[in-house]
């Protein structure tokens, strides 16, 4: 891989351009490293207290009745953000869209089963389970084959 860095005062902010003929795992890792630099914290509300959520402890995040919840081993914790805002924060941590209302942690998946309607039933290490709708099955499988990165 060839790397070119140009430092000049005429640039007001850093801009990264990658030129390649195909997408690779190496590029995926580079993007994740870049995205982690602008790390934003994720807070939840549990028993009227604000708690800091570790992405590694979250199995999936879902929207229900106009509220957003993080499903963890110890239970569900409400997040005071929109689902798309939470998705932006969690994508660099191995999360991916499972359905219109669910974002799942690929790193916490233990196994999955194909259902008769084309959906995938995903089982997490914590014992939780969630479904991936047909629209997102191919993308999730592709991401898992790349190592969940």
UniProtKB/TrEMBL annotation:
Residues 43-146 form the HTH LytTR-type domain. InterPro entries: LytR-like, LytTR_DNA-bd_dom. Gene3D superfamilies: LytTr DNA-binding domain. It holds the Pfam family LytTR. Keywords: Cytoplasm, DNA-binding, Transcription, Transcription regulation. GO terms for molecular function: DNA binding; phosphorelay response regulator activity. This is LytTR family transcriptional regulator. It comes from Cerasibacillus terrae.
């Amino acid at each position: 891989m060839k790397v070119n860095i140009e430092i000049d005062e005429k640039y007001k902010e850093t801009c990264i351009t990658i030129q390649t003929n195909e997408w690779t795992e190496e590029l995926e890792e580079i993007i994740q490293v870049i995205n982690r630099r602008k790390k934003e914290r994720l807070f939840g509300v549990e028993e009227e207290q604000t708690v800091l959520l570790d992405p590694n402890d979250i199995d999936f995040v879902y929207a229900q009745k106009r509220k957003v919840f993080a499903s963890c081993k110890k239970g569900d914790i409400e997040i005071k953000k929109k689902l798309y805002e939470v998705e932006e924060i969690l994508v660099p941590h191995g999360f991916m869209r499972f359905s219109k209302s669910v974002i799942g942690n690929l790193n916490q998946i233990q196994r999955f089963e194909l259902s008769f309607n084309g959906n995938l039933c995903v089982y997490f290490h914590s014992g939780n389970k969630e479904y991936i709708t047909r629209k997102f099955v191919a993308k999730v499988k592709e991401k898992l084959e790349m190592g969940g990165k």
